[in-house]
Amino acid sequence: MPRCLKEIAQVQVGYSFRSRLEACAGGAPVVQMKDLTWDDVVDCRELQRVEVGEVKDSQLLRLGDLVFRSRGMDMSPALMVDEPREAIILAAPLYRVRVNSVQEVLPEYLNWYLHQDEAQAYLASRIKGTAQKMVSKNSLEGLPVDLPDLPTQQVIVDMAALLQRELTLLEALSERRRALISTQLMQLAKGEN
Question: Residue 88: its pLDDT value, please?
Fold first, then answer.
């Protein structure tokens, strides 16, 4: 039986900066929309550092947190896969999704689940705005999540990772095959054997 996201995880909006972010060498690192990669991972290698006031613990990221894009066309999360060496601030309008208990929900499973068509359809049906698409915190918290036992969650996570690896290899193989055939056709066009 599905459970609402708010029953299994905390959803918190990131730190709201009152003005444009100004880089500061001695400041705190901040995760922004641009730091979420194409493969839905939080890239912490080149975070902008800014001077900030008081930040709540709930606006800091840690290993296993999901960073959810609340605005734009892509309403999918990115997973925090590296253990931060220092406090990293999440900037609004991003949401931090943190599972309440890893004994009940694997963050990797929740990340996978939020990418599935059923979850994405639910979120798409709750988008507000015309020029700037947005999903509210309440809508995200109300998302029904199918929650199998931990061993089943782990099997799903492992199988999804294998599928992604296979797709990556097939794409690389296809690109190499295209390049090989293109080269052979060019040689044929030039009369070379």
Answer: 85
Q: Are residues 114 and 41 part of one domain?
A: yes
Give, rounded to a whole angstrom, the gap between the first and last alpha carbons of the chain.
64
- How far apart CA 83 and CA 107 sit, in angstroms, is 14
| Structural domain that includes position 186 | 148-193
Total of domains in the chain: 2
pLDDT given for residue 157 in this prediction: 95
Per-residue pLDDT, 155:
97
Of the residues 111, 126, 147, the one at which a domain ends:
147
Average pLDDT along the chain, 193 residues, taken 10 residues at a time:
92 80 75 82 82 77 86 72 77 89 94 92 84 85 95 96 92 95 92 79
Residue 77: HSE in the Cβ half-sphere, 13 Å Cα cutoff = 26
What is the residue-wise DSSP string for the chain?
Answer: --EEHHHHEEEEE-B--SS---EEEEEEEEE-GGGB-TTSBB--TT-EEE--S---GGGEE-TT-EEE--BSS---EEE--S--SS-EEEBTT-EEEEES-TTT--HHHHHHHHHSHHHHHHHHTT-B-SSS-B--HHHHHT-EE----HHHHHHHHHHHHHHHHHHHHHHHHHHHHHHHHHHHHHHHHTT--
